[in-house]
Amino acid sequence: MHTVTLIPGDGIGPEVTAAAVEVIAAAGIKINWEIADMGITALEKYGTPLPDEAIASVKKNKFALKGPVTTPVGKGFRSVNVGLRQALNLYANLRPVKSFPGIPSPFSSVDLVVVRENTEDLYAGVEHNIGNVAAEAVKIITKEASNRIARFAFQYALEHRRKKVTAVHKANILKLSDGLFLNTCQAAARDYPDIEFSDRIIDALCMDLVLAPHKYDVLVLPNLYGDIVSDLCAGLVGGLGLVPGANIGTEGAVFEAVHGSAPDIAGKGIANPTALMLCAAMLLDQLGETTAAEKIRRGIEQVIEEKIALTRDLGGSSSTREFTEAICRAIV
Ligand code: ATP
Ligand code: MG
Q: Where do the Isopropylmalate dehydrogenase-like domain residues begin and end (predicted)?
């Protein structure tokens, strides 16, 4: 039996992670879940939103399924998500964005993979006031991190039979930092002659994505552009409730949705658990349980396409529970 860390998280986190745990069981896979607190719940119990116990649990088990976590505001805490990624060296954030048949969205058959650098850029946390007249945030781009994420993107493309990798940057303005990212991607591309390589300036990419997303395949981006473009891509396929993600490092992986804690709908039982269920499928792939992962994906597709149950964000009126039960029935 696999042991995996489960981080229920904040807001809609407990609701959507519970749904993901249910579909894994329905697919016939037994997992020994080790519960770890992070975010607001951890702050109340341990006095810190990112307890060492939680980090140790993920380190030990190598894999975690994680709900969204909120960083308490105004108390001098650094981002919990950034802290976790740094503590476990989860350097790559992989976000497959795929259209669902039956979901009203601007395009059909979008099939993109966003590969976001996860450790540096403006997220390095180097920010300070200059007296009380200005503030400065430092954008850090290193050759090492750029090379690592570029090679991750090419390797992913190779292993998943993808054809193209596009590096996204603003090297025309940020000549040194984004310039280094771009040059490093170009150098890595030479080692992958079978994968087509191109680059695109971030603003032009944004326009292109909303006009012709089919032009793209795998996108590789520095941290901040990756954050923004991920939400844009989620919009292309029907919203944040549908896009899963994996934070991958040298010692393991943490699977979490692109969406946040959605405080506006938390506790109401109406959140869409699809993103977390797709995270569960990605987790099962990593555990070698590929048949069960495929069952979950097909179950979700069937329930959505046949409109057996749809949550409100997808235009339906079903609760998280009704939607989850429909998927569990579709799986068996
Ligand atoms: P956080 O600060 O944790 O990121 P947020 O306020 O940015 O929270 P998000 O979770 O990013 O909120 O959500 C943005 C919007 O999308 C909200 O209106 C939220 O209700 C909606 N949303 C996000 N995830 C889901 C979901 N799984 N199901 C339904 N609606 C969702
Ligand atoms: Mg958000």
A: 3-327
CATH of domain 1-105+237-332: 3.40.718.10
Please identify every residue annotated as catalytic: 123, 170, 203, 227
pLDDT of residue 206: 98
Q: Give the chain's largest Cα–Cα span.
A: 63
Domain segments of the chain as ranges? 1-105+237-332, 122-234
**Site to substitute for ligand 1 among 40, 259, 310, 323, most atoms within 8 A of C-beta:** 259
CATH superfamily, domain 122-234, is: Response regulator (3.40.50.2300)
R_g over Cα of the chain = 20
Ligand 1 site residues (CB inside 6 A) read: 12, 16, 68, 70, 240-241, 259-265, 271-272, 275, 313
> 262 CA distance to ligand 1 centroid (A)?
3
- Residue 81: how many other CB atoms lie within 10 Å: 23
Q: What is the predicted ipTM?
A: 0.94
Mean predicted confidence (pLDDT) in 160-167 = 97
pTM exceeds 0.80 for this model: yes
